[in-house]
Design brief:
It is a single chain. With 203 residues, the chain is mainly α. The chain has 8 helices and 2 strands.
Length: 203
């Protein structure tokens, strides 16, 4: 039998049946590149713009200033570990989700212990009017501790809206829930907070 002229067939190469699949993959590459162009890469140099709000959110999650500082540092370390490509311009929502994921994986067990509040050794110190109001500091400690004690869904909703200042729409997208659900959780979380702080004040 005489073979037809041409390049010898390599049994290790894909046959004709594989060509449509390869063509489909090649055709999808420009679409993927186009989709990526609609987003942007998270700018590490701008993370500091969100530091204050992330710290307040971390304090609300942990109930402790010291743990909050560690949580923010660990979150930044994870985020900066590799380039982050975001599909939208919602940097703050993405950072909130990263903060919550880091908290759930590392810090949740620490919230079971009561927050430690250092008291001055000498109560007869002369007041420094330039120093921050200690009562305001104690109020903040009680507030963040009360937020951290809320059930998880209510706590996350209150942190997103009242602590970080996201709109209801932004908070709903960040937490991946419907806006109506987010609104209900914020309302119920606020009611529980008011009740808890009222009981603490009466005590």
């Amino acid at each position: 039998m005489v073979c037809s002229p041409g390049r010898p067939r390599d049994e290790n190469l894909p046959g004709e049946g594989a060509e449509p699949a390869l063509g489909a993959v090649a055709g999808a590459i420009p679409k993927l590149a186009s989709a990526q162009m609609t987003g942007h890469q998270l700018d590490p140099d701008r993370l500091g713009d969100h530091l204050d709000r992330l710290y307040r959110a971390a304090w609300s999650l942990c109930g402790s200033r010291e743990d909050a500082e560690d949580l923010v540092q660990d979150t930044f370390a994870r985020v900066l570990g590799r380039p982050r490509f975001l599909r939208s311009d919602d940097d703050l929502g993405y950072l909130l989700r990263s903060l919550q994921n880091t908290f759930r994986s590392t810090y949740r067990a620490r919230t079971r212990r009561p927050p430690e509040v250092a008291m001055p050794e000498d109560l007869s110190l002369i007041e420094d009017r330039r120093a921050p109001d200690p009562q305001r500091h104690l109020d903040a400690v009680e507030l963040y501790a009360a937020i951290s004690a809320l059930p998880g869904d209510f706590r996350d909703a209150v942190i997103a809206v009242d602590v970080m200042g996201l709109s209801y729409g932004e908070a709903a997208r960040a937490l991946k829930v419907k806006e109506a659900t987010l609104t209900t959780r914020v309302h119920r979380g606020r009611r529980r907070l008011a009740s808890a702080l009222g009981e603490a004040e009466r005590a």
